Amino acid sequence: MSNAGQSWPPVETEPAVPHPKAPQPGSKLGVHYSHCFGCGDEVEVGLHLQSSVTDGPEVVSEFAVTEAHQGAPGLAHGGLLACAFDEALGAAVGNLLRKPAVTAKLETDFVRPVPVGSTLFITARLDGVAGRKTYASADGRLDAGDGPVAVRARGLFVTVGVEHFTTHGDKDALEKLAASARRRREEWDINP
Ligand SMILES: CCCCCCCCCCCCCCCC(=O)SCCNC(=O)CCNC(=O)[C@H](O)C(C)(C)COP(=O)(O)OP(=O)(O)OC[C@H]1O[C@@H](n2cnc3c(N)ncnc32)[C@H](O)[C@@H]1OP(=O)(O)O
After folding, report:
1. Which uninterrupted H or E stretch holds 91?
2. What is the pLDDT of residue 180?
3. Positions of the region Disordered (predicted)?
4. Is 5 a domain residue?
5. I need a surface site. Which of 19, 25, 146, 178 has the fewest CB within 10 A?
6. Does the interface predicted TM-score (ipTM) exceed 0.85?
7. CA angle (101 as vertex; 96, 107 as ends), nearest 5
8. How far away, in angstroms, is 172 Cα from ligand 1 center?
9. Mean pLDDT per 10-residue interval, the chain, length 192 residues
10. Whole domain around residue 103: which residue ranges?
């Protein structure tokens, strides 16, 4: 069932204003963490999303669907498509607002099948901010930026402090993320 009839964002929000140091339109976004399943270059069967910023401001990501991403024969697995949208939406929130945030809620509408060998062009945008909550949505089009929509998604991201990652994840998370950030010549804005 489509969620098209539901109001979005579901609460009153302020406009999401990009951080003054957000990557400029036209910038390619690098890998945010080399072991990330969504974008990492050290995850052989990962999704390897490649993203850039447009003047929307939006983040456009390309996901090349391979045999490693199948659910049914010849078709992308829906859960992996949701993962691609989590990554694309998270890249939009993290890069445009330059604050660490995690996915609290993610909804997907699968509109048409996504075949192996196709490339999904995902455009993600920020829809509003309410305190620590950022609402974002995205469309994924088949094989071209103006191709038919195959998947739509929307999500809620909650800004967190860096202790979220060091307490719940790897105590060396900051060093590992910083190493990737150094590769991108960027700094984390560590306070929510
Ligand atoms: C220099 C910088 C460059 C940066 C460049 C970075 C690039 C970066 C690219 C990243 C790309 C990766 C993108 C993948 C991102 C993941 O996949 S993250 C992994 C998956 N997510 C998680 O593991 C999160 C697990 N959940 C949690 O840790 C906690 O539940 C949360 C989300 C932090 C919230 O907990 P909390 O901090 O205690 O806050 P809490 O008061 O519960 O909630 C805050 C607000 O959100 C609301 N909320 C929370 N959950 C929900 C929900 N499910 N539904 C509705 N509302 C909710 C609450 O009601 C509350 O609302 P208000 O009361 O403020 O009105």
Report:
1. helix 78-97
2. 81
3. 1-26
4. no
5. 146
6. yes
7. 95
8. 21
9. 75 97 94 94 95 96 98 98 98 96 98 98 98 98 98 98 93 87 62 48
10. 28-183
Q: Whose CA is nearest to atom 40 of ligand 1?
A: 158
Return the H-helix or E-strand segment holding 81.
helix 78-97
CATH of the domain at 55: 3.10.129.10
Q: What's the CA-to-centroid distance between 118 and ligand 1, angstroms? A: 31
pLDDT reported for residue 178 = 84
Measured from the Cβ of residue 99, the count of other Cβ atoms closer than 10 Å reads 19
Bridging pattern class, strands 149-159 and 133-142: antiparallel
String of b and e for 180-190 (b: at least 16 CB within 10 Å)?
Answer: bbeeeebeeee
Number of structural domains in the chain: 1
In sequence order, the β-bridge partners of residue 134 are 129, 157
Give just the sign of the alpha carbon dihedral 23, 62, 107, 83: negative
pLDDT, position 173:
87
Taking residue 21's Cβ as centre, other Cβ atoms within 10 Å add up to 10
In angstroms, what is the span from residue 104 Cα to ligand 1's centroid?
4
pLDDT of the residue at 182:
79
